[in-house]
Design brief:
The structure is a single chain. With 270 residues, the chain is α/β, with parallel strands linked by helices. Helices cover 46% and strands 18% of the residues. The chain folds into 3 domains: 62 residues, no CATH class; 122 residues, Trna Endonuclease, Chain: A, domain 1; 57 residues, DNA polymerase, domain 1, CATH 1.10.150. Strands 3-4-5-7-9 form a 5-stranded mixed β-sheet, sandwiched between helices. A hairpin with a 5-residue loop joins strand 1 and strand 2. It is globular.
Length: 270
Amino acid sequence: MGNIKIIKAFGEADVFSEEKLRRSLQRSGIANNIVDEVVHEITPHIKEGMTTKEIYKQAFDLLKQYSKPHAARYRLKQAINALGPSGFPFEFFIAELLKYEGYITKTGVIVQGHCVKHEIDVVAEKNDQHFMIECKFHNGQGIHSDVKIPLYIQSRFQDVAANRFQQAWLITNTRFTEDAVTYGSCMGINLVSWSYPAKYSLRERIDTSGLYPLTCLISLTSHEKSLLLNKGIVLCKQLCEQPQLLATVGIRNEQRIKNILSEGRQLCMQ
């Protein structure tokens, strides 16, 4: 295709890569022959200056024709970004993810520091180690967490460290700037973003756990998702284990309930 330039979410120009598109589709777990068909359909329509968002939408629309659960998994990043705008569902989601990894977690904990009180987004405990976790949520793409964020986290950690916290963590659904990573690493802060660190990023930990946010589900409307999030229901797993939750937001049609649960169960099994 030559060197066709496309625009990434953070405004950077990059050369379109068919291989990158292929890998992003393969992460959804869909069969290689379907990946080939989607790539074959999309590639001829790539034009100079297209955004990755436009390319993603084309791929997503095609995937829906083959498998809603796989399409739901493909839209994982957008689904995480939809856990807003307050950020509280994201904190709950992170707490559940850490529970899967063997941590004991609590959210919204008030801790008395040496100087002042602090509300900690998530407190996690494992093997007699206690961790202070700050969740930095952004409900839009193209936003970085810069060095001011880990600087702020480090100052809070120093004030509460006497309360048996061994380490501060900072988890975001987007990206860190280079300076943020450098400072966080220097100060011993455990940094986790959508794609950092390699092999242990937020995206990979979600795929490993199978804990997908209900905002992935194509069978739910945006309004229904908002109602469920407002009730503290964040995971597809919660709906699969407690289907009666759907009735609390007015979903009573038996066929719709079957469709939602079928999509959710297939997604959690990926």
